[in-house]
Amino acid sequence: MEEIFGDLKQIVIQLRKFPKPIEEPESFLKITGYAHIENLHSNILSYYLNPYKKHGLGMLFWHSLMDSLNFNINKSSSIIEISREVRTKKNNRIDIVIIANDFILGIENKINHDLNNDLEDYLSQLQELSKEKYNISEENVKLMVLAPKEIKLPNKKFLMLTYSKWFTNIINRLPNHYLNANAIHLIYLKEYISIMSETTPNKELFEYFYQQKDIINDFMETFYELQEEMTDKVIQLNDLMKDYVGHKMKLFIYENSWFVMQGKFSDVTFTVDTLVTPTGFRIMLFFREDVDLDRLYDFVEVRNILENPKSRKLIFKNQRILYKEFRYNEPLSTIKSELDMILNKIERYQD
Question: Which of 65, 132, 215, 351 is the most buried (most CB within 10 A)?
Answer without folding.
Answer: 65
